[in-house]
Amino acid sequence: MNKEIEKLLFNPLRLKIVSFLMTVETCNFKALIDVTNATKGNLSTQLKNLNDKGLIKIDKYFQKSYPTTDYSITSEGKKQFEIFFLQLQSYKTYVKKN
Amino acid sequence: MTKEEQLSIINDAIQNAKYNLKPLGFNFIFWGVLIISMSLFQYFFHQIVQFSYYSSTIYWVLFPLLGIVYTTYYNIKTRKTIGYETILGRVIKIIWGVFSFSWIGIIIISLLNNVNPVQNILFVLGMTLMMSGLIIKFNKITLGGLLLIIFTVYTYFVPDLNFLLVNVVGITFGMLIPGFALYLQKKDE
Questions:
Q1: In CATH, A3-97 is 3.10.450.50
Q2: What is the pLDDT of residue A1?
Q3: pLDDT tens-digit series, residues A11-69
Q4: A13 near A46, Cβ under 8 Å?
Q5: Angstrom distances, CA of residue B9 to CA of A10, A14, A35, B39, B72
Q6: Whole-angstrom distance, CA of residue B27 vs CA of residue B68
Q7: Chain A residue with minimum CA distance to B11
Q8: Residue A85: what pLDDT?
Q9: With 80 as the cut, is the pLDDT of residue B1 above it?
């Protein structure tokens, strides 16, 4: 697995965001605040980081004159999360065996 | 952060993304009440609904179309309030979207062939309900859909049935009762 991505997902908030986005099609900022309990500023920063690395997609558009933002995971994000999760699972199996 | 903590974070985040069953239950109740009311109204006041050759067709196209507009608005509003759409929610949305197109198709084909569309609509509705029930793992919806299919097949072998009463019985057991069960369900999927 890409060390940079592993380091990125080592942060609890970023891991929470990516895990949640893995299970939903799209979500808005408010839902992410509810799920992560993070502050707006911190959440925005981490979302930008994940977007810069190509793990998540940010769609900004206007709905009835109000700016709206939707977040979703990219196919690269899905792939990287699956690798990350498989590594965790294999670790769990290893611990159980020993 | 340990591996166990990472797994715990992933698990918690997945648990947060539950598909809210209440709006789907509301949709079933809304359509159940609408179709049953329309059927009963036509049954008791047929002279009003059937005052001309096309009035009954207009009646059965106009009100369900208004219903589609309202439920689409309701579902968009609900999606905004919840703030996210699960994969399960998207699957259910697609299934019912396809059903709406099938409904329009059946109406047009039936009009062209001058046949009553009720049985065909109920059959497709039963199939869609059964699929929804199986997908969200809610047995009452699956059973409701199955009952509706069996009931519709039965009506094909019984001549001279009043299709308005067929509608009332089929929709009550196939949609309204399972819809209430779903609406009152506390657990989300």
A1: no
A2: 62
A3: 999 999 999 999 898 999 988 998 898 999 999 999 999 999 999 999 998 877 778 88
A4: yes
A5: 11, 10, 11, 52, 35
A6: 10
A7: A19
A8: 87
A9: no
Contact (Cβ atoms closer than 8 angstroms) between residue A88 and residue A78: no
State the smallest CA–CA distance between residue A27 and chain B in angstroms: 4
Sequence letter at residue B18: K
Tokens of B10: 């992933």
Work out whether strand A66-73 and strand B84-86 pair parallel, antiparallel, or are unpaired: unpaired
The amino acid that residue B64 corresponds to is: P
B87-130 residue pLDDT tens? 888 899 999 999 999 998 998 898 888 888 888 998 999 999 99
Asked if the C-beta of A25 comes within 8 angstroms of chain B's C-beta atoms, the answer is yes
At residue B50, does pLDDT exceed 70?
yes
Q: What is the DSSP string of B152-165?
A: HHHHHTSTT--HHH
CB contact under 8 A, B3 and A27: no
ipTM above 0.90, yes or no: no
**Chain A contact for B8 (CB, 8 A cutoff):** no
Contacts with A85 from chain B: Cβ below 8 Å = 10
* Rounded Cα distance, A75 and A85, in Å: 15
Asked if B84 and A28 count as a contact pair (C-beta separation under 8 A), the reply is: yes
